[in-house]
Amino acid sequence: MPTPPPPDLPMKYDRCPSCGFVNLPDAGNCVRCGRSLGIDGESAALMDGETYAEGVPRETDLGKKVLFWFRIYSGLMVLLCLPVIGLGVILLSLAGTFESQDAQGDIAAGLIFSVGGAAFAVFYAFGVFLRRSPSGWFIGKTLILFGLPVCFLLPATIPLLMAWSKPDSRVYFGRYSL
After folding, report:
1. In the chain, how many domains are there?
2. Residue 15 in domain
């Protein structure tokens, strides 16, 4: 059943011809069903028979690009975890070898670095093999958000997060709701 617009909405909002959902005027695609807005003529006639259920991924150009760059991001994050693991192993192996150092502190730091680095490496390795599904979209967004606190990753994580949250990317993963 089409969603009726609230009475106080101006007429400039776009109603989806497929599902009737009222979208923002600058939306390129319907937020609910993913259909491109503003298509008319022959293209609209071809798309009228297409319906996509919630949770069914659909091909989009932006979605393909975003997933490609996300996999590269995840692979680089795995590579960044390897030196952290190596530092932890070095701290564990050198614990107590020098008289002026705290052996227990070296062991604790070594465990934190090696176990924490290994955990994040495994976590980001899942991103390299991420599948297209609504849960895959959520896992990917979580992995991107984990990279935000690292200052030197901001030039990569902010554009990736913005592209990941766009409606076309959501449609690509079968996640249509906001």
Report:
1. 2
2. yes
Same domain as 72, residue 25? no
Helices (H), the chain: 42-47, 61-94, 103-128, 134-147, 154-164, 167-173
DSSP state of 151: G
Query: Which tens digits make up the pLDDT trace of 56-104?
Result: 567 778 888 999 999 999 999 999 999 999 999 998 888 877 765 677 8
| Dihedral, CA of residue 172, residue 159, residue 127 and residue 59, to nearest 10 | 10
Question: Does pTM top 0.70 for this prediction?
Answer: no
Structural domain boundaries, residue 150: 61-173
Residues 47 and 65 in one domain: no
Please report the sign of the dihedral spanned by the C-alpha atoms of residue 87, residue 91, residue 93, residue 99: positive
Cα(9)–Cα(20) distance, integer angstroms: 15
In this predicted structure, what is the pLDDT of residue 41? 38
